[in-house]
Amino acid sequence: MTKETKIVLGTWAWGDNGNYFGNHYDEDHFKPVYDEALKDGLNIWDTAFAYGHGASETILGNLAANTPRQNIVISTKFTPQLEDATSDAMENMLEGSLERLKTDYVDYYWIHNDDNVEKWTPQIIPLLKSGKIKHVGVSNHTLSEIKRVQEILGEAGFKLDAVQNHLSLLDRTSEQAGILDYCKENNIEFWAYMILEQGALTGKYDVKHPFPEGSVRAQIYNPKLPELTELINTLKEVGAAHDLTIAQTAMNWAVTKGVLPIVGVTSAKHVADAAKVSASRLTTAEMERLEKVADKAGVNTIGSWEQDMRE
């Protein structure tokens, strides 16, 4: 990864089939999204077997098939909750991902949830040695778990390269728990997912324009939209000084934090918007203002699959 690249493109909603995000987009829909990313120089893609039970990986693999492999960075994940109960569960899931992604290696492979650090961390070491994984990361892990992963990898001559946790103006528990500081001190990248809270911090949705009923997003966020009104207005005001939209300002908050924001992209416009974020930084005063208003909203967006990183 080049230091100039500050944005990761997320594919959680690819192959969703209406189950979580409420869309039914097929591969043809995502081709202009992928093409826009190439045009804008954004080349880091984050996916997982868990996203659509392999559908997201399949779409990305098909779209990237004609792109020189060295020109893109592919990140995917081992999800313990979906393992096949064999002694080679992690290797089997990786092999399936490699086949769907049409590649013989992934740049980043993550242990998706904390499930059992002692069990799963040692199993990633042979895959690192094989060259099928270039960098190892953990997602949804607490600080104590991250440190333990470091110890296990270190004993085998490897290191933890990245942490991927929920981080947004509405969920700063990874920062409050000291995970961001630990990552900086140990040269570990921090990838922030849900920085836009699945669209709730884009300005597209508000009390008068709620999420469409029938999706999980609507169930989670529609009841919280009244409390988010002031934050959305503040994002708009702060962004105006930098010629940024509401969504771009929320992204820029993460970039200014020094993390790599993962931006979910389901349209070419999403990609183009993300490409504009890297160039500017918010001031300390603007960061403090946004965080104060966000704290005042008091909205808890920790997912059912997540833990409070402060505990």
From TrEMBL:
The keyword Transport does not apply. SUPFAM superfamilies: NAD(P)-linked oxidoreductase (SSF51430). GO terms for cellular component: cytosol. Keywords: Oxidoreductase. Residues 6-294 form the NADP-dependent oxidoreductase domain. InterPro entries: AKR_Detox_Biosynth, NAD(P)_OxRdtase_dom_sf, NADP_OxRdtase_dom. Gene3D superfamilies: NADP-dependent oxidoreductase domain. The keyword 4Fe-4S does not apply. One of its GO terms (molecular function) is oxidoreductase activity. This is Aldo/keto reductase. It comes from Lactobacillus amylovorus.
